[in-house]
Design a protein that fits this description.
The complex is a heterodimer of chains A (255) and B (67). By secondary structure, chain A is an alpha/beta fold. Chain A contains 8 helices and 10 strands. In chain A, the strands form 3 sheets. A 5-stranded parallel sheet of chain A has the order 5-4-3-10-9. Chain A has a 3-stranded parallel sheet with strand order 6-7-8. In chain A, strands 1-2 form a two-stranded antiparallel ribbon. The mean pLDDT of chain A is 96. Classes of the chains: A alpha/beta (255), B mainly beta (67). Chain A binds chain B through residues 16-20, 26, 39-45, 47-48, 51, 54-57, 66, 68-69, 71, 81, 84-86, 88-89, 91, 156-157, 183, 203-206, and chain B through 5-8, 26-28, 31-34, 36, 39, 41, 43, 59-67.
Chain lengths: 255, 67
């Protein structure tokens, strides 16, 4: 079980809801992923054009917790405004703090992220900041009282997987709040690796939504996260430089 | 009356006085929507009694797909 603030989850997969090829595929992918947390962005309604179906409005909201993000914010103040709008829906109290500091890499602004997290904690939100793999920043966020830390594996949507496992492991080892590896996951091996490092969960979007078969990939990610978690708990063997025989070296038939 | 609605200058019909009227005119009564008037969030209990004024800045916000 994964506990974040007052919320408890069976699933350790947090799924993004952007960029699916169709609503039908998205619905199926969400279903088979068995996720309990769906992320959303907060935007102006497109009221001047023909009404488009809205994915959120088609969901059974008793089955999922919403994790809106503050994507689009470049300052702490903008992030707080977006978070308050999200909470005013009455549908959620969790917020993924996402303050981008570089348009090209989409890496988070550490100073604005820290400031926004502090302001949102004071407002009573359940705060999950998306951050870089900076170990000291993660510590500072935890000291503020955030409810989970969400370090990126690599840039958002890049699919480059885990670039700095050492830093992620440092963050995981030092944190007393859950650590969710967020952003950059490319394939199931990355998700499994994150969990084998000891992460409490994985947040991904593009890796499923942009896969050739998003529904199949959603299943694969669910299984990878479960496998990685079990593997971490089971305790992997230590690495050796040379071969160590698995079969007895005595009683050889040829001798 | 002219208001700024989601970044666009809109001339409102004379029958639209309150935020509730505005939402009704866009058929948004039963949609998941958050209303902001002049940068202040307006809760649904106040839609019927909040009268719009010329120059008001209104934002109608919702959730869309995102990661």
């Amino acid at each position: 079980m994964l506990t974040i603030g007052k919320h408890t989850f069976h699933s350790r997969l947090f799924l993004g809801t952007g960029k699916y090829p169709s609503f039908n595929i998205q619905k199926q992918a969400v279903e088979v992923s068995e996720t309990e947390v769906l992320t959303f962005a907060v935007r102006r309604m497109n009221i001047f054009e023909e009404s488009q179906p809205n994915f959120l409005e088609q969901l059974d909201l008793t089955k999922y917790k919403l994790l809106p993000n503050t994507a689009g914010a470049k300052t702490a103040e903008e992030a707080v405004r977006i978070a308050k709008l999200a909470k005013a829906s009455g549908l959620c109290d969790m917020i993924k703090v996402e303050v981008i500091g570089c348009d090209k890499s989409l890496l988070p602004d550490p100073i604005e992220t820290l400031k926004a997290s502090e302001m949102l904690l004071a407002e009573g939100f359940t705060v999950l900041p998306y951050t870089s793999d900076d170990v000291v920043l993660a510590k500072r966020l935890e000291e503020l009282g955030v409810h989970a830390i969400m370090p990126g594996a690599s840039p958002i949507g890049s699919g480059k997987g885990i670039l700095n496992p050492l830093h992620l492991k440092f963050i995981i080892e030092q944190s007393s709040v859950p650590v969710i590896i967020d952003a950059g996951i490319g394939s199931p091996k990355d998700a499994a690796y994150a969990m084998e490092l000891g992460a409490d969960g994985v947040l991904l979007n593009t890796a499923v939504s942009d896969a050739t078969d998003p529904v199949k990939m959603a299943i694969a990610m669910k299984m990878a996260i479960e496998a990685g978690k079990l593997g971490f708990e089971a305790g992997r063997i230590s690495e050796k430089n040379y071969g160590v025989a698995s079969s007895p070296i005595t009683g050889l038939v040829s001798s | 009356m002219i208001i700024q609605l989601n970044g666009k200058s809109i001339q409102l019909a004379e029958t639209i006085c309150t935020v509730e009227d505005l939402l009704h005119s866009y058929q948004l009564e039963n949609r998941i929507v958050v209303v902001e008037v002049n940068k202040e969030i307006l809760y649904s209990e106040l839609y019927g009694t909040t009268v719009l004024s010329n120059g008001d800045i209104v934002e109608l916000i919702h959730f869309v797909g995102g990661g």
